Amino acid sequence: QSALDGYHVCIFAYGQTGSGKTYTMEGPDALDPETRGMIPRAVRQVFQGAQELAEKGWEYGFTASFLEIYNESLRDLLAGRPERGAELEIRRVSSASEELHVPNLRCVPVTSEEEVLGLLQTAAANRSVARTALNDRSSRSHCVFQLHIRGSNPARDLHCASVLSLVDLAGSERLDKSLSRGERLRETQAINTSLSTLGLVIMALSNKESHIPYRNSKLTYLLQNSLGGSAK
Predict the structure, then answer these.
(1) Is 220 helix (H, G, I), strand (E, B) or coil?
(2) Which residues does ATP bind (predicted)?
(3) For the chain, how many structural domains are there in total?
(4) pLDDT single digits (tens) 178-195
């Protein structure tokens, strides 16, 4: 409901490798309504809420995006193979705005839970995974699903815009337990540094510190607008 009211909303799945983060976010079987994860359930609730608000004169439009942050590089999980190799950058919408966006990130118009499930399957097939000592298919990247919401009520001349972010964080692993070597070692180090920065940002926000280290990682910089201010 907060997202429909114009507030940025962000939910994380955090934990060690194999703790069930991806299971929680996506569910084991997209075709079974009883076992669907948080992403399709949240989207369904948003669409239902939009239908109810339509009776009060509100009109909404939705676009969805999926990206991963792998070794501090952004990749579009909905792009075709050639485009997916291109690294994306985070930019300000304008010099006068604090809002951030990712140019060239594919944003797909969606109107139903089923359409989002199709995007979820595409993203899952493209995500970076690898075998580690702790998990045969360990997620080696942060996966960020974002539902971009724009609403208007012409009769009351009201407008709102928000982003619902659902983030499946890469598995946190201690280096001595993950038995990482070479590329896996670099991945684990990047993941742990990113997760550490996320913790520092949340702590700085809770302590109302004057400086928040958003720019210390791509994850926190991307989600800056969804972590600070009036975000939920």
Answers:
(1) helix
(2) 15-22
(3) 1
(4) 455 566 777 788 888 899
pLDDT confidence bin for 98, thresholds 50/70/90: confident
Please check whether residue 70 lies inside any domain of the structure.
yes
Classify residue 52 by burial, with Cβ atoms within 10 Å: 0-12, 13-18, 19+. exposed
The enclosing domain of 193 has a CATH number of: 3.40.850.10
* 102-120: average pLDDT: 91
Answer whether residue 1 is part of any domain. Answer: no
Can you list the positions of beta strands (E) in 2-128?
A: 9-13, 59-70, 73-76, 91-92, 100-101, 108-109
Angle, alpha carbons 201-207-209 (nearest 5°): 70
Residue located via tokens 């990682």: 217
Contact 47, 120 (CB under 8 A): no
Position 125 in a domain: yes
Domain extent for 143: 9-227
Within a 10 A sphere around the Cβ of 8, how many other Cβ atoms? 24
In a domain, 141, yes or no: yes
Which contacts (CB < 8 Å, 24+ apart) does range 25-28 have?
Answer: 25/143, 25/145, 25/166, 25/168, 26/120, 26/124, 26/168
Q: Which amino acids are annotated as binding site for ATP, given as ranges?
A: 15-22
Residue ranges at the known binding site? 15-22
